[in-house]
Amino acid sequence: xxxxxxxxxxxxxxxxxxxxxxxxxxxxxxxxxxxxxxxxxxxxxxxxxxxxxxxxxxxxxxxxxxxxxxxxxxxxxxxxxxxxxxxxxxxxxxxxxxxxxxxxxxxxxxxxxxxxxxxxxxxxxxxxxxxxxxxxxxxxxxxxxxxxxxxxxxxxxxxxxxxxxxxxxxxxxxxxxxxxxxxx
Length: 184
What we know:
D-Maltodextrin-Binding Protein, domain 2; 2 domains; five-stranded mixed β-sheet; four-stranded antiparallel β-sheet; 9 strands; globular
């Protein structure tokens, strides 16, 4: 197959798939019940989850409970966005106070930039995405990833509902990659 990559804001990625802008979502897409109502998925190929990132040197936030009264950055439309809302609800039930503000960004890099400049206190983000960005040479030592993981999420490749031919073809390739060790 010929591959063409189509960069798309994550918040509109499902709509773009459904409208035919591209044929599959291969972008760290967490498989959720809500998303399964709109699109089909491959079998999970990776387990991920949401993590919390703070600016290096921040000693006041060491766990999710410390986010009470804090400003949190998330990428719009991601499971990090949903996790922040779930955490806010949990904190309000547990401590009768929640997150001060959930700032939503079109790009994860914008959320991390605002964290670095002090416009937010933490970022909730997909683990592979967050670890990738904070490990970049120009970012080393600027961020701390907390040890607590907020969620555990299976990742899959998204397809338009009913596009079984492409889904089966991609699933066959994934299965072969698992079998030969290319995909762990």
